[in-house]
Amino acid sequence: MSLIGSRHTLRLWLSVLLIAMMLPLLATAQAPPPTTCQRQTTAQVVALDQPFFLNRLGALEATGMMFALKRDVVPISGTTLTAGNVQLRSDKRPRPLVLRMNVGDCLTITFTNLLAKPRKDNDQVNTRNASIHVMGLGLTTSIADDGSNVGKNNMPFVASGGIAIYHLFV
After folding, report:
1. What CA–CA distance (Å, rounded) separates 121 from 61?
2. Which distant-in-sequence residues (6+ apart) come within 8 Å of 160 by Cβ?
3. In this structure, are 79 and 16 located in the same domain?
């Protein structure tokens, strides 16, 4: 068997080929992001208690909690949005919340926790605190722009009725 045709040589060539293919990706991954925003995007997001259907057969999550844009919710009674007194507008259906931006944009999320305090029934979770964690975006002002409760970060959770502002870089 020739040296060129041996299994060891084939593995070596495959390894070199994979490394050569990864070098451009590694070079771009290590480049620091620009520090200035090309465009500023803002979103007002709320957390609310909202029952929703899981399928068309009628499976219901009666104790559901979700995020929504503030413009898509209305008070259940009265005229003001308060914790526990909020629902989706009648022309909206519960859907995943998607915020779209371009690379180089900055995103500011004003988050309001409108989950009922105390919980409305015993089947709901006890925790009524909430926060937002967006994966893959850079934090622009401090670690407080990340709603994760990890390590020695300050407690990121927003109590029922509270507000937090997150600044992120795309």
Report:
1. 13
2. 83, 84, 113, 114, 115, 116, 117, 128, 129
3. no
End-to-end Cα separation, the chain, in angstroms: 54
Please indicate, yes or no, whether residues 128 and 158 belong to a single structural domain of this protein. yes
Claim: this prediction has a pTM higher than 0.70 = yes
Q: Across all residues in the chain, what is the average pLDDT?
A: 79
Distance CA 78, CA 142 (A): 37
Q: Domain containing 137 — which CATH number? A: 2.60.40
Return the exposure string of 29-64: e unless at least 16 CB atoms fall within 10 Å of the residue's CB, then b. eeeeeeeebeeebebebbbbbbeeeeeeeeeeeeee
Are residues 15 and 69 located together in one domain of the fold? Answer: no
**Residue 170: both structure tokens together:** 């795309």
pLDDT tens for 125-152 read 888 888 988 888 888 888 878 887 777 7
